[in-house]
Amino acid sequence: MNNSSKLAELLVKLRGVREQSSSCYVSMTLPIKEIDGVCKLNCKLTGYLHTCSEYENFAFEVTTTFNNPVTLFRFEKRSNSEEERLTKEEIGEFAVKLIDDVLPNLKLRRNGRMNYKTNDEDEITR
User: Fold this and answer.
1) CA of 60: how far to CAs of 50, 96, 98, in Å?
2) SS3 for 90?
3) Residue 28 to residues 2, 10, 44, 58, 109: CA-CA distances in angstroms?
4) Do 34 and 43 touch, CB atoms closer than 8 A?
5) How far, in Å, CA of 6 to CA of 45, rounded?
6) Closest CA to 7 of 58, 50, 52
7) Radius of gyration (Cα) for the chain, nearest Å?
8) Calpha distance 88→6 (Å, rounded)
9) Smaller CB count within 10 Å for the chain: N or C?
10) What is the Cα 122 distance to its own chain's centre?
11) Rounded CA gap, 49 and 17, in Å?
């Protein structure tokens, strides 16, 4: 079983735990030591589901570690509505893209922002 399959399985299990509890938000920190040579970043993987919300999402977010954290990058997979929950396959696609594609290609730009870029047509920035 590869890392993206393990991550997808973990996210599906976390969603199950979240559904059985009163909590609507699950957050975990991935053991990422550095991105593009920068060591002082917070990397979190979150899952969000709330009875009042219209969607469910999983997101990977990179923030600074200063007093007022700033989001440098966000990559997410979101359902359109509460009824159209993310399938196991969609969660798997998110995990595969994050582990195999986004993380290896995430770079810190000179303006202090991060971007993910594998070619000119496939770019996610924030």
Assistant:
1) 18, 13, 8
2) helix
3) 19, 11, 6, 11, 26
4) no
5) 14
6) 58
7) 15
8) 12
9) N
10) 17
11) 11
Give the model's confidence band at 82: pLDDT under 50 very low, under 70 low, under 90 confident, else very high: low
pTM of the model: 0.73
What's the burial of 91, exposed, middle or buried (CB within 10 Å: 0-12/13-18/19+)?
A: buried
| C-alpha to C-alpha distance for 61 and 90, rounded to whole angstroms | 19
| Residue reference for tokens 């219209």 | 54
Q: How far apart are CA 63 and CA 73, in angstroms?
A: 7
| pLDDT tens digits, one per residue of 53-80 | 667 888 898 887 777 778 888 899 988 7
Q: How is residue 67 written in tokens?
A: 């007093």
